[in-house]
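Researcher: Last one for today. Full complex below.
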Amino acid sequence: MKIKTKLILSLIMLLFLHSCTKEEFEGPSIDILYGDFELIEPLTLTSKNPNFSNNEKVGFSCEFNKPVEWKITILGLSTNAKREITGLSNIIDPNETKWNGAPSQLPFFQEEVCAIELTFENETDTLRDTLTINSSKTFDDGIWVENFEDGTPSEGIVYYNSSGGGMTFTVANDDPLLGNSYFKMGGRVNWDWALGSLDLPININNVSQSSNEIYINIGILSDLVDLHSGQFINILISEETDTPFNDNPNNNASDLFESTMEVYKMKVPVDWDGWQMKSFKYSDFEPLSPNDPNINFNMNPNDISAIRIACQACPSAGVQENCPENFGKDVRTDIDHIIFTSNSSLLDQ
Amino acid sequence: MKRSLLILVVFSVVLLSDFNVHAQVNDNIWFDGLSRSYFVRDAIDKSTINDTLSPNNRSNGYNLLDLNTHVNPIKDIEVMAQLRIRNSFGSFFGSGTEINVRQLRAKGVINDKIRFSVGDLFLKQTKFTLFNYDEELSGDENEMLKHYRDIIHYENFYTQNRWRLQGIQTDFSFKFDRYIRNLGFDFFVTRPSGSSQINETTYSSDLLLSGGSIFSEISRKLTFSANYINLYEVAPSGTNNISVRNPVQGISLLHHFGNEKYRVEQSLQSGFSKRYWLHSELENGISDSISNETKGMYFEFNNKLFMKDSTLTLTAGYRYVDPNFRSAGAQTKRIDYAYTNGKTIYPNYTNMSLVRPTSLFDLISDEKLYNQDLSSTLMPFNPIYSNILPYGDATPNRSGVFMKARITNKNKKFLAKLNGGLFKEVIGQGTAEKRNFGLFKGAVKINFHKWLNLNNELSFSISSESELTERGGDVVSSIDLYTHQLNTFVNAELVKNFFVQASYKQFNANGNEFLTQRNNYGNITYFTSEQEIDQKDHLLSAGILYKFRENVYASLNYSWWGAKFSDQPDYKYNRLILILSVEL
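Model: Here's the assembly. Have a good evening.
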């Protein structure tokens, strides 16, 4: 083929390509994304009288003309319990956007009427509806560690600094999170970090989930009356499998939390009023002794052998005086409803 | 294994330390490499920024030696190991000192016919199949900032628009006495990234890149080549059952003619790409399926005129790249705009600890912003710095004409370069209206020492680069973005090999654009509106340079740089930099 012929063919191809230019466009329409907001389908609920105790879920559906940030707010009119569900889309799909009856944070919903509100970021439109909870959700789906309903766990070890003032390391019934009992942890130890701890043995060697899929949930109660601003809870989880839980009975605590063992930690500052349900993914815990080359830190929920919940606070006097402003203040970090859940936190189950 | 190798190499270096690295130890072992001393001191200009949280100034630096040991155990085989010894300033007694093997390669010829290389390879094919395009703002860079570029390119293995990959390559050719003159083949298989643990139970798959080229000189004036490349994941090497496939095929014809005064080269390139994700369902016993499949093509016709006395080079052509053309080897960007680990210089600023927006100086100097890994999807880009061809000539959804010219006179008293292009989107993004693009670059270098018959160099260069993006239609979706870059540079050789230099670089961007957001499969999911782009970056530098010999120099300069924004606080910084670079 001669070069001239090739050039002619090239020019024909060039013209062909020009004529092939398409008329449609890539991606979502900008005119819709940045144009006026319009509602296409109203807000509807799959159930107006849900039975959450039977694991029923309420699905929400709605459709609008463009993707926007939306927020569904569910408010218990008796308890003031609140749940917020958010998303960014142009459609709310009832198969994906569901409510299980749990709040975003405590208090829990009870059998009550709830107001539902759907709002949109940067838009004035608000859609409203109501539902009535026939039976409220129970929070028992998971692997129980302790609920304190039978008093102080018989296999557990409670330790506290007996020289402190007003030490409360015992089961109480006056203000439980769920059920009838909870465990009080508090008091006043001005000169030291540690106030006390509760050690519990755990055997969950039948779980199949990885550390990314296991959550530890714990209810924590505090108050803002003369709050000790440096109080916190330290959660230690041990995967030591060779040492018995109480190897040395003369100790005040379990022997599974030594710095030479495979132990993971999580620090939880406590600075709120009332109960809060805290949930932590197990993989978010940090090694207790990360620089020890003799420890193989390979998280495996099967190997969890014990948990320690320690009440601590920044000392306000003595040689470790770091927080003098807290001198004489009581620490309060009471706990209840300790439970492992799979794939999501307790409130998202 | 790696540790043993390292010990072996260190041991070898210690044993051989008596040898002069310039010298051939013997025919079987020889050395080359690079040594660099680098020191910078950065300071905040507090006249602009209210920042009491950041230190007023900070300094750091390092010494490094990259020693390349070439061993020829037999005549046809060479093994090369590059050992890096790097010592950060302020460290001592081994603390802060790194020793690692930076490159390993064996190459040779089998029976004087088939060449092969194993290990670190530097690969390139055509501009549409495998090509490592230059980064933004790097065209016509003046010599004063070239030291930064050299370091970034060296540290990221950017050599002649090649991608550094690890694998095996072979090539061989045949000569013929009839029908065609010769026929050559080149094949490679590489692994851009290996399987790695994402979490306790999930592993990513091996990512492989393989390809080949066939090229033939059909006649004295006509050359034909065909290229194939495929980026793919090997699903069984990980725990995901989804793996990407991105084969690209291309052919090109190169024809040339001329006489004793000029030569004309005409090239025609075209090819096709396909990209999809394969869902393997071996465990469930059902057949595999694919998703997110896209198919696209490209076409380029290019004419190049050379005057044989080198006074004029002129290029003009037409290019079409389909919106769905996807080629990981050619569309992966050097600059990683998604990099979020913080910049090297003052990553935060103001007393609100805002993340400092990227500026011209960061792109020039911060090697951390640069990427070495091929990406199977289009990487994000910043339309301020490059909106017309963010993925080089392989940028999808573009059609248009382009031209380049290079003009000089016989005694090289001046050198002028022109570069222009008019492009248009093939289909619109977010609207049926298409973007129109205009590109104009001009650069002039005047060698005064040639005009004035001076022995020492005295030159001035200036360049200007403008990009214009427009889109009509509704007010909501219309676009008007203008960016401009200005470079000036003065170079005066006071005494032999000793230069005083000064440069000024300015970058402006004004208008509005939409940033494209894509999902994991490269599909556009959203357009973020940037309605008030008004940015002005500046960089003023002055300094001295002493060239001991080619590729051996010491440079000391001071820079004043900063940026102005319409929607966030401005900033200004200063930098003193000392570089001693010795190519062994």
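The first helix of chain A runs from residue 3 to 19. The two ends of chain A are 72 Å apart (CA to CA).
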